[in-house]
Structures are given as structure tokens and as C-alpha cells.
Write a structure and sequence with these properties.
- The chain is α/β, with parallel strands linked by helices and 283 residues long.
- It has one domain: 3-Layer(aba) Sandwich (Rossmann fold), CATH 3.40.50.1820.
- Helix content is 26%, strand content 23%.
- The strands form 2 sheets. The protein has an 8-stranded mixed sheet, sandwiched between helices. It has a 3-stranded antiparallel sheet with strand order 7-9-8.
- The protein is globular and about 50 Å long.
């Protein structure tokens, strides 16, 4: 079933919200930096019959794209305000990478929205990294190809290239189809390179540090981590940015370590995320 596209205004910014009808407590999805809500389609299809909401965070997808700089706390506010305006209660919050960070922020702001959280390789670093001088160079993001003849051209270019060659083909198709927007007879990236680069630049800013609020998250929290190690000195987008001991900082956290998996867990193995989501529904 195709979702309905609606818009919710947060601080004057139009946030695109994709909604699937269904029964029971809802599922609320938040995506990674540079991605969009429809990257979750293959997970959602494996958890049928549930009311589901997936958000295009500001700067991404069909949402408004204010000029940089971008601050990470804004994305948590996007999630919280959308959930409140949709009157979501008892939702399972599922976030990948930056989306995991945003789900935690939203749960601290609006605890009644969430019954449990599934953080898929969330971008929540070791506490000591916040506020440190950045040594990782993200300038290559600004050189991303931004113009395409069609999403199909993008798909054909990426399908045999790393890291996309390891992705589930339908996830790559969704990523490409909803990852560009028409402009002047061509298509441009739905997350402009300057926006994506700004988000990465702010990832370890002091105000991005969630450790002061994490002890107040009372819902059960599952942290799903990839096994490809992250390094402070390199910018490897396939590496896991999640602090190895993160789950222990939550009052009711559990850790799932996926040896052999990299950061793109929902893209390569949507069935793993779906299986854990079903497990949370059962609990």
C-alpha cells in the first residue's frame, strides 16, 4: 500500500510526513543524514498492518530546506513536534544514524509519545568526542553529483558501486526514486550537498551531546550496532559511529551487536530491523 504524503509545520518549516494506515500503537521512523523517509519502505513492508509514520527531516526529501548551518537538536524537535501534532501515543520509535539521535531527543521532549525505542547504529559517539576539534574531513560531501537526468540514471550508476552494491536492490531503488526532486527538466538531490555537509560538521558539537538527557529516558531502548569499527581520524561512512557502551547509559537499554555488518544495516538487511521491530511490538 502506498503511503499518504502530508505536511506538518515546525518553527515555520514544512516537514513532509509519510503515513501508512493500520491498527495498534504506531511505528515512527526517522532516517539518516542525507537520506529520506522512503528509505524505510522495505522495513515497513515487513511489518504490515501497523499505523506507520516516516518523516523527512528538515533539509531532506520533500521537506523545506533552509540554508545551513544545521544543528542536530533541530531534528529531534522535528520528530517531537510531528508526533505531537499527529497525536501519536505509545509509538515504537525507530531511527537510523542521525535518526536514532533524533528519536532519543524526541523521547526526552515528549516521553508519552513513545513506548520503546529501536536505535539502529545511531550517531551517538563516545561522550569524550563531543566538543573535540574535528579531525575528519567531510569536504568531499560538497562534491557529490547533484544533477541527474532521472532517478533511474542514478540507480544504474550506483547499483554496482560501493557501498550501494551491497544494499538490498529495492532499498536502493527507493533511495534513488525518492532521493531526487525535479528542477528545470533535470533532477537534483533531495538533500543538497551543502545541507548534508553542514549536518556532518555539527555532529560532535557540544550541543549535539545527548548524554545529559539519556538517563531520563525511561522507555526500553534497543541499540543495534554494526561491527565495522569507527575511527576518529577518518571519514568512513560505512563505519559504526555508535559508542560501544551506549546501551548501558539508558536505564532500560539492551545492546545488539551485529558482527560483520556495517553502518548501513537498514539498507543491506531490512529484514533484521523488521524482525526486531516485530519483537518490540510483541513485548
Amino acid at each position: 500500500m502506498n503511503p499518504a504524503l502530508d505536511f506538518v509545520t515546525v518553527d515555520g518549516i514544512r516537514i513532509a510526513v509519510w503515513q501508512w494506515p493500520g491498527e495498534g500503537p504506531p511505528l515512527l521512523f526517522a532516517h539518516a543524514t542525507g537520506f529520506h523517509a522512503r528509505c524505510w519502505d522495505q522495513v515497513i513492508r515487513r511489518v504490515p498492518g501497523r499505523r506507520t509514520v516516516a518523516i523527512d527531516l528538515r533539509g531532506h526529501g520533500r521537506s523545506d530546506k533552509p540554508e545551513p548551518p544545521y544543528h542536530w537538536r533541530w531534528f529531534g524537535r522535528d520528530v517531537a513536534c510531528v508526533a505531537e501534532q499527529l497525536n501519536l501515543r505509545g509509538a515504537i520509535g525507530i531511527g537510523h544514524s542521525m535518526g536514532g539521535h533524533s528519536i532519543v531527543e524526541a523521547a526526552a521532549m515528549c516521553p508519552a509519545v513513545f513506548s520503546s525505542l529501536l536505535l539502529v547504529d545511531p550517531t551517538i559517539f563516545e561522550a569524550a568526542y563531543y566538543g573535540m576539534p574535528r579531525r575528519r574531513d567531510a569536504s568531499f560531501i560538497l562534491r557529490r553529483r547533484n544533477q541527474w537526468k532521472s532517478w533511474e540514471e542514478m540507480f544504474e550508476r550506483f547499483r554496482n558501486r560501493a557501498p550501494f552494491a551491497q544494499w538490498h536492490p529495492e532499498v536502493l531503488r527507493d533511495y534513488c526514486e525518492f532521493g531526487v526532486l525535479p528542477r528545470g527538466g533535470e533532477y537534483i538531490l533531495a538533500c543538497p550537498p551543502a545541507v548534508e555537509a553542514s549536518i556532518y560538521a555539527a555532529s560532535n558539537a557540544p550541543e549535539s551531546d545527548l548524554y545529559p538527557i539519556i538517563p531520563g529516558i525511561q522507555q526500553p531502548v534497543t541499540v543495534m550496532r554494526g561491527g565495522h569499527p569507527w575511527s576518529l581520524d577518518s571519514f568512513d561512512l560505512t563505519a559504526s559511529p555508535t559508542a560501544p557502551g551506549l546501551a548501558a547509559h539508558f536505564p532500560h537499554g539492551q545492546d545488539i551487536y551485529l558482527e560483520g555488518r556495517n553502518h548501513y544495516i537498514p539498507m543491506e538487511t531490512p529484514e533484521i530491523v523488521a524482525r526486531e521491530t516485530v519483537s518490540l511490538i510483541g513485548r
